[in-house]
Amino acid sequence: MTILVTGGLGYIGSHTVVELLQNNFQVIIVDDMSNSEKFILDNIEKIGGKRPVFFPFDLRRKELLSQVFDAYEIDGCIHFAAYKAVGESQEKPLDYYENNLFSLINVLQEFKARNISNFIFSSSCTVYGQADKQPIDENTLLKMPESSYGKTKQMGEEILKDYAIAYQKKVSLLRYFNPIGSHPTALLGELPIGVPNNLVPYVTQTASGIREKLSIWGNDYETPDGTAVRDYIYVVDLAKAHVKALQKLMNEKSETLIDVYNLGTGKGSSVLEVVEAFETANEVKVPYQICERRAGDITIAYANPDKAERELGWKADTSLEEALRTTWEWQKYLQTKN
Ligand code: UFG
Fold first, then answer.
1. In what order do the strands lie in the sheet with 170-176?
2. Which residue owns the Cα nearest ligand 1 atom 10?
3. What angle (nearest 5°) sits at the alpha carbon of residue 153, between those of residues 255 and 257?
4. Which of 83, 128, 149, 232 is catalytic?
5. 249-260 tens-digit pLDDT
6. Contacts of 206 (CB under 8 A, 6+ apart)
């Protein structure tokens, strides 16, 4: 089976490509390199034992995309390619809508024209906004996300639902909670551009001295220690869920299918707990200061991942500390490269 992985050199994409290769899928990557580097492809090959076919272009270039579909018989797609910085999306909403939605639609047009099914969409728990109750299951009411980035994820889901019904297609919408960590080989991980926005890359850079201290955005939330709570899921566990979701789509007899899964651990951790877990796991100090709340942040979000366990036979079982250990190994690897 040949799978197109858009954004396959990115953070979650690269880990998923490795899992696909290890499960004997052929992989074709299209990635515009806007948030990746070429050495990631070499490292995928080192881990996966095979070099995926790679095309460096932007999915808005329809003619190039068509040529890929002409050249290869594609059986399915895992679509990661998207801009993903929440803050930036507020400054450049049109760029986010254009890139994230047109890229998605262009791939779907090819799927429709060539009668291919099996499409997996990289969505986010941001589609729930601040949910009324925790943990969050798949039937939780969707609320309009605050950021334009989040809106592109919610709109992407709506596009896919309409597409699946109108053209009798199989789609799987995977709503990630907070992915963290790196590959156990330390050859793959997150490559934050500039100053990281996300917690774990910032913690990691602070521990290594690149940043002076972590700012904890608020300790007056209604949570046990006052800092905000999220569900941090190890990226390799997350990558494995994609393979399971894909296999389920492929084995499904019915023509039309819309699967939705929350991918998280089911456990919430506060910002302070993450900092402490990082310090314990890696025997390093993370200096921090408490600051005002960050605009747009929600208090708490963690998953009820039971549906994924029931239907996919998948469970995130890597501990927070273990995930944070891999992050630190990746940081050390990056420093040897610079
Ligand atoms: N945080 C800090 N200091 C930092 C960075 C983050 O205290 O320097 C806190 C945040 O305030 C938040 C928690 O750490 O409470 C996690 O923040 P992240 O930015 O790592 O993650 P978010 O939960 O804000 O955002 C993530 C994804 C988005 C997605 C969103 C959905 O990054 O893609 O979840 O809620 F849209």
1. 53-55, 26-30, 2-6, 76-79, 119-124, 170-176, 257-263
2. 217
3. 10
4. 149
5. 999 999 999 999
6. 212, 213, 214, 286, 287, 288
Contact 33, 27 (CB under 8 A): no
**Ligand 1 contacts CB of residue 294 (under 6 A):** yes
List all residues 6 or more positions away from 316 whose beta carbon is below 8 Å from its beta carbon: 233, 234, 237, 238, 241, 263, 264, 265, 266, 305
Return all residues near 125 (Cβ < 8 A) that are at least 6 apart.
Answer: 136, 175, 176, 177, 231, 262, 264, 301, 303
> How is the chain split into domains, by residue range?
2-180+233-264
The two three-digit tokens of residue 46, written as one number: 């080192």
Sequence-separated contacts (24+) of 333-337 with Cβ below 8 Å:
333/186, 333/187, 333/189, 334/189, 334/191, 335/208, 337/39
The candidate with the shortest Cα–Cα distance to 161, out of 61, 257, 17, is 257
**Kind of pairing, strands 76-79 and 232-234?**
unpaired
pLDDT in tens, 263-312: 999 999 999 999 999 999 999 999 999 999 999 899 999 999 999 999 99
- Distance from the alpha carbon of residue 197 to the mean position of ligand 1, in angstroms: 7
2-180+233-264, CATH topology level: Rossmann fold (3.40.50)
Residue that the structure tokens 């309409």 belong to: 162
Nearest residue CA, atom 15 of ligand 1? 228
- State in Å: Cα 243 to ligand 1 middle: 26
Predicted local distance difference test score (pLDDT) of residue 175: 98
- Token pair for 83: 């801009």
Helix (H, G, I), strand (E, B) or coil at 161: helix
Closest-CA residue to 19 (of 247, 230, 204): 247
- The rounded distance, in Å, linking the Cα atoms of 24 and 18 is 10
